Amino acid sequence: MTKDTEILKVREKYNQLISAHGTRLVFQWIPGHAYIAGNVKADILAKKGAQQQQPCKPVTYTTARQITNHNYRENWVNMWAMGQTGRVVYKYMNSLKTNDNIRTISRKEQVTIFRLGTQHAPLNYHLNRINPQHPPMCPLCNDNDQFETTDHLLLHCPNLDDLRQDLLPPTPDTTNILYSTTDQLKNTSSSTTWQWTEEQTLTGCWIKEEEEEYIKSKKA
Ligand SMILES: [Zn+2]
């Protein structure tokens, strides 16, 4: 059955519904995974229907692969939407985007951007959460009452004003420096990599060592 005949069958069906119920039927695109009551109900019914015995209808390998990929993606997006982790990133990345600019930068830059986005960067505030003995303060601020958070490093530390002016937009914020154009993502990445070595950026070994030391100290 071609797509055209499927569309014709759908049209025929909705014409029947209209004449049977004397009502108006409107096709309207709505966003998925947005907890719209009617759509959630339709989704539940569709899943219930899909679990019932299906007519045996052979499909081509290409179609089977498309269906498998679609289902896998849908499951992944649902799990991501319902999950408890990564919520700080979820605000900005709530769907799968194959054309996301982060895909256009190098692996090393991707790691840096992702770490800054998740706030799991080897900065003192995060290292202090792993090991309470590690001071959480910014090493650049003389008065030393500033936590070295991602926001402090990227947006506020007065000692990094020059670097910020060179590499970040005039009014930097999370969106325009971490979820932006390819060039900006590259600049944001290079504005921060001076903080840790290439090896640490690539492997996360610094955080891992801190974690291991802390676990050892707890066991001792
Ligand atoms: Zn500072």
Question: How would you describe the overall organization of this protein?
Answer:
InterPro entries: RNaseH-like_sf (IPR012337), RNaseH_domain (IPR002156), RNaseH_sf (IPR036397), RVT-Znf (IPR026960). With 220 residues, the protein is mainly α. The chain has 2 domains: 3-83, no CATH class; 101-219, no CATH class. Helices cover 59% and strands 0% of the residues. It is elongated and about 75 Å long. Bound molecules: zinc ion (ZN).
Main sheet? Answer: none
Helix content: 55-70%
What is the overall pLDDT average? 81
The coarse overall form would be elongated
Distance between the termini: 69 Å
Which small molecules are bound?
A: zinc ion
- By DSSP, the count of extended strands is 0
Which stretches are low in confidence, meaning pLDDT under 50 for 5 or more residues running?
197-207
Quaternary structure state of the chains depicted: single chain
- With helices defined by DSSP (H or I, 4 residues minimum), what is the helix count? 12
What share of the residues does DSSP label as strand, in percent?
Answer: under 5%
Total domain units: 2
* Strand and helix order: HHHHHHHHHHHH
Radius of gyration: 25 Å
Secondary-structure class: mainly alpha
Brief characterization of the structure:
It contains twelve helices and no strands.
How would you describe this structure in keywords?
single chain; 220 residues; mainly alpha; binds zinc ion; RNaseH_sf; RVT-Znf
Break the fold down into its secondary structure elements and pairings:
Blueprint: H1 3-21, H2 37-51, H3 61-82, H4 87-90, H5 107-118, H6 124-130, H7 150-156, H8 161-167, H9 174-178, H10 182-192, H11 198-203, H12 205-219
Helix pairs in contact: 5-10
